[in-house]
Design a protein that fits this description.
Low-confidence stretches: none
Number of helices: 23
Largest sheet: 2 strands, antiparallel
Structural class: mainly alpha
Mean pLDDT: 87
Shape: globular
Strand content: under 5%
Distance between the termini: 6 Å
Order of helices and strands: HHHHHHHHHHHHHHHHHHHEEHHHH
């Protein structure tokens, strides 16, 4: 293990976080007459701590010697997300809005991992600066802070692919263009552009600039932190439809948007994952609409709420337009299934990912065919390309680890004095980075009543889900830290 490059990179990330905190600081200054000065001082102190710690790790303990391999990549990603979450929790604690560090850490991890689960029972009591920081963490974590660093820093070691593979979601991560640095830039340009477009659409619907920004951050990062107790329930139908559409847009593989930009429309449209993703959304939305039709005044209203909730769950965003706890069991069952599916690989959505399910199902059919015809030579293809055996094995390994870890976390969370439905969906919602679950942790509830150890465990589950298990799991492996 090259400790110095790990320390150097984590230090750079904390320096970047200090810079990012300047935005909520500016918001706190703008709204100081309404909110008071507590948020301003909280951000100033947090910026100082983040900057000092970052400089110490970078220039005292670290060294950029460019000896970066796979295990350094995993270590950098895991430690960076932990450090980023711990430091990002400081403004909440220092300002007094969330006095408990465990609660603040849970809220911040939920933000950066784009989960949207909250311990707050009165979100409207937060200052504008805190609300902005809370939602901005979604936007930062959505595409990945290390991908952001690769896009803006001058060096390109040629081995940064180890970091990108450890942080980017999906079974297959590659370059859009020969230089990885340019790939990171392209991804962020697309990300910023779509976010800006959503802001404009929300402004047309009557939101002010602050509301448009925070809700666009939550949609882009598929995070779901809102600024009202009922999430998006009190906003008009136009705004709910805009956010529904953009949630689905951000759940699509960003590589397809790049193909559209370079005018390879046919290649983009032929994406198997895109068609399966769209089919799941349409079928689920239609089934729920029929099931809840009698609960609303018109078909249009039922369609809107059905597709809003399907979009928010499959993309793991976590917004809500209604309390779906009150829906029939069949509709809730569909939403729980969608919690596992998630969005497309290479998107900002969480969950297992549509592409993994496609590969897993095709592998099952291939193996059945081999049983019937032992001499046949059949491969697994995705997007017209053969999936190599290492990718198939990694998908199988991921599924095995996924369900084992989910089971262990659920059993531990079941020690809490809540219903089976609440504990199970709390585990699934955190592990899949969704946000709200059912029962006590439903869209109108919160995670506030869980004990401190349970919140720490659920924070760990959120990080495991966002980093897709292995980077965080490997840092607890002794062999990971051995010197070469």
């Amino acid at each position: 293990m090259n400790y110095r490059i790990v320390s150097h990179t984590v230090g750079r990330i904390l320096q970047i976080e200090a810079v990012l905190m300047l935005l909520p600081l500016a918001v706190s200054i703008i709204y100081v007459e309404q909110d008071g000065a507590a948020s301003i001082w909280a951000f100033l102190i947090s910026i100082g701590i983040s900057l000092a710690l970052g400089l110490f790790l970078t220039y005292v303990l670290g060294k950029n010697n460019k000896l970066l391999f796979a295990r350094e990549g995993f270590a950098i990603v895991a430690l960076a997300w932990l450090a980023m979450s711990a430091v990002g929790a400081l403004p909440f604690v220092i300002s007094g809005y969330i006095p408990s560090f465990v609660d603040a850490f849970f809220e911040t991890v939920s933000g950066f991992t784009t989960t949207g689960a909250s311990i707050l029972t009165d979100v409207e009591a937060l200052s504008h600066g805190m609300l902005f920081w809370r939602s901005f963490t979604h936007w930062v974590g959505g595409m990945g802070v290390l991908v952001f660093i690769m896009a803006i820093l001058p060096q390109d070691t040629g081995r940064n692919i180890h970091i990108m593979r450890a942080e980017m979601p999906g079974p297959i991560v590659g370059k859009l263009v020969p230089r990885l640095k340019d790939t990171a830039r392209i991804l962020y340009i697309i990300y910023i552009a779509i976010t800006a477009i959503e802001v404009v659409f929300l402004l047309f619907g009557g939101m002010d600039i602050f509301e448009s920004l925070v809700h666009s951050f939550g949609t882009a990062g598929t995070g779901g932190f809102g600024i009202k107790g009922d999430s998006l329930g009190s906003y008009n139908a136009y705004l709910q439809w805009v956010i529904t559409i953009f949630m689905l847009i951000f759940g699509v593989n960003f590589n397809l948007y790049y193909l559209i930009l370079i005018k390879q429309f046919k290649t983009a449209v032929k994406s198997t994952e895109l068609w399966v993703y769209g089919a799941i959304v349409l079928i689920s939305g239609a089934a729920i609409t029929i099931n809840i039709l009698g609960m609303y005044d018109s078909v249009a209203e039922a369609v809107r709420h059905a597709f809003f909730q399907v979009a928010t769950v499959i993309t793991t965003t976590g917004y809500s337009s209604v309390d779906f706890n009150l829906w029939p069991g069949f509709s809730k069952a569909i939403l729980v299934v969608l919690m596992f599916v998630g969005g497309c690989a290479g998107s900002t959505a969480g969950g297992i990912k549509v592409s993994r399910f496609i590969i897993a199902l095709k592998t099952v059919f291939r193996d059945i065919k081999k049983m019937l015809h032992p001499r046949s030579v059949a491969g697994v293809k995705l997007e017209g390309k053969k999936v190599d055996d290492s990718t198939i094995n990694s998908v199988s390994t991921y599924f095995a680890f996924y369900f084992i870890i989910l089971l262990v976390i659920f059993l531990l969370i079941s020690l809490e004095p809540f219903s089976f439905e609440a504990n199970f969906t709390a585990t699934v919602a955190c592990f899949n980075n969704i946000g709200p679950g059912l029962a006590e942790v439903g869209p109108m509830g919160s995670f506030a009543a869980y004990s401190a150890p349970a919140k720490v465990l659920l924070s760990f589950a959120m990080l495991l889900g966002r980093l897709e298990i292995f980077p965080l799991l490997l840092i607890f492996t002794p062999s990971m830290w051995k010197k070469k």
